[in-house]
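Sample entry as discussed:
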Amino acid sequence: MKLKYSVLGAGAMGSVFGARLALQGHPVELLNRTPDHAKAIKEQGGLICHLDKQKHLIPLQADLVTNANFADVVFLFTKTHQMKEALTNLPSNLQSAHFITLQNGLGNGQQVAAYVGIDQTVEGVSIMPAEFIKPGEVGSAGSSETWMFSANGEHSEIVNQVGEDLNQAGLKTHVTSDVRTFIWQKACFNMAMNALCSLVDGSPGLLQQFPDGRQLAHEIAEEAITIAQLEGALVNPEKVHGLIDYACADHTYHRPSMLQDLKAQHLTEIESLNGYLVAAARKHGKEVPLTNLMARLIRLRERAPEFWATEPIHH
């Protein structure tokens, strides 16, 4: 059977997922809370997507969440702090769908299950370079990899079908009951890199040029890995440290999403990354001083724009 797909929170990654599925002939709808992206897609007759140096104009549906068409499967790419709002106001056409959470961060599966039920929840994680160029236009180059499994721990026909569809669309996907380990593995990497790059207004390339920065990333990752293992995730430390070194050497001018959020004066995903780890560490009677410092600094940094907005104007 042909599954109908929706992407809720169609930013860079969500739009690229939708684009690759649509190129394989799958019905796809991109959904956002604001109209800009959908409007641009309608006006230009499709989504402009740069995939591995090729430019495509992909005819697919795009609309506001409130106007959603029926879907069998919804990929969730909203920011984690927007998830509650998205899932409490679901339009009726999406209420029977399976929800696949591929957002950054920890604890997303539990949050989604609280709204749509554990049997309709699929936990996952995806590693993919993607860029939101402007409304109606996105890009992605290089390899991607995705892991997912039903949150209830049982094998599911629909999840297997999604896995097949994604693999055929060129999105390398593993349906694996060990998904939580991969979620933690990416989170350990993100906790080390995202907050650090954001605070120094830099990229992995900056950490490469000034190796003390890279060393700091490894030290933060070490704290995260220790807590991941106490939480029962069999994270491979070599994989995490290898990813940091690879990003520093290879993603020279990549702006992490957290840095992009700060530049756009948006809230970040710090609570589902470094903030989550601090709380998890306390549960085990452990301290994670570097991770905690990153979380505290990012929280302050998030509030800077509204602080400066209150500055009296001097004539």
Remarks:
- The chain is about 45% helix and 20% strand.
- The chain has two domains: 5-177, 181-308.
